[in-house]
Amino acid sequence: MAVPNPTCTHAGCTVEWKDDAKKFSSPCHGSEFGNDGKVQKDPATTPLATYTVKTEENSVLVMSL
C-alpha cells in the first residue's frame, strides 16, 4: 500500500485529510490531492511523495527510498 507524505509540494504546508471528500487539502493555498497523492486542484503541479507501507503483526513498516 502507498501512503502520501502530508507535505504540500507547492507551499510546504501540512495537508489535511478531508474524509467527507476523500482527498487531502492544503490550508495555505487550496491545493487538493487525491488519496493516491495526485494533484486534483492547483496551484500545486507536483503530486505528494508517497511511501510504500505494510503491516507485520503489530508493526507498520515504511519502506525508505
Task: Give a description of the structure.
- This protein has 65 residues and is mainly β.
- 0% of the residues lie in helices and 40% in strands.
- It is built from no helices and 7 strands.
- Strands 2-3-4-5 form a 4-stranded antiparallel β-sheet, with no helix packed on it.
- The radius of gyration is 13 Å and the shape is elongated.
- The model has no long low-confidence stretch (mean pLDDT 93).
Please identify the structural class as seen in this structure.
Answer: mainly beta
Instruction: Give the assembly state of these chains.
Output: single chain
Number of helices: 0
Estimate the strand proportion: 35-45%
β-strand number: 7
CATH architecture: 3-layer Sandwich
Stretches with pLDDT under 50, minimum 5 residues: none
CATH topology: Rieske Iron-sulfur Protein
- Average per-residue pLDDT, rounded, comes to 93
Helix percentage: under 10%
Terminal residue distance? 15 Å
Major β-sheet annotation:
4 strands, antiparallel
Can I get a quick summary?
This protein is an all-beta fold and 65 residues long. It is built from no helices and seven strands.
Architecture blueprint of SSEs:
Blueprint: E1 2-4, E2 16-18, E3 23-25, E4 32-34, E5 39-41, E6 50-56, E7 59-62
Antiparallel strand pairs: 1-6, 2-3, 3-4, 4-5, 6-7
